[in-house]
Amino acid sequence: xxxxxxxxxxxxxxxxxxxxxxxxxxxxxxxxxxxxxxxxxxxxxxxxxxxxxxxxxxxxxxxxxxxxxxxxxxxxxxxxxxxxxxxxxxxxxxxxxxxxxxxxxxxxxxxxxxxxxxxxxxxxxxxxxxxxxxxxxxxxxxxxxxxxxxxxxxxxxxxxxxxxxxxxxxxxxxxxxxxxxxxxxxxxxxxxxxxxxxxxxxxxxxxxxxxxxxxxxxxxxxxxxxxxxxxxxxxxxxxxxxxxxxxxxxxxxxxxxxxxxxxxxxxxxxxxxxxxxxxxxxxxxxxxxxxxxxxxxx
Length: 298
Ligand code: C5P
What we know:
globular, 4-stranded antiparallel sheet, binds cytidine-5'-monophosphate
């Protein structure tokens, strides 16, 4: 986080994530699903600026660095926005009256499976804890984060990689010994997470994350990377025909390993190097999808 002096703006980057492995283990009584997923943070980032404001005042503005023609309507800026909900929940949990002005520059596509909204909200909890001088320990921030969504805890942990279980909120950080290069590709239009989960049906042979965890532990050799797996790929493909097409484009363009992140609609291709990623992206740029070249990193 840049600038940690009280009274000065705090400028913080919020990274996106990829699910390299995602198994859905079953439906829960509370309507959510139990998961086992391996996540990696990537350097496609939103930027948030936090400024002190008078007591009780919470103001939020959003600037889009992405085209809504390609992605569909932007996330709401009103009460439903996860950043504002995070700020309110933190204020309520700590009985603080302090205010804040929050500005978000949005570069992470939404309805994409990249966790952008969750990352923005987790970043808000971390930043306001600092701006407001609350000194809440990380364990308390984790508890608040879990009330706002399943992916926030990964971003609170500020780790490059982790295996996440239960609803997604139980995070065990893992070392990522090498930087990994990816091309992201998103078809026109996104997918709503709840719709994709609703269409999920149990597999006869559930997969475990063991191959991915062993690969991380063994030094993350790109040539030996296991194939990505995502139990939400089948329902996402049913809901959005562009997902299968986007995966095919990444394969045809020469990506080494191809998968879908979260509940889609973004697909990713693992590449041999940054140079290779730029070449892969160049080959699919003219197609009916948007591409990004990105690397692992918080
Ligand atoms: O946790 P989050 O609010 O991001 O989840 C959005 C929706 O995705 C939930 O309302 C739920 O329908 C679905 N979901 C799920 N199981 C999870 C995570 C999300 O069913 N572990």
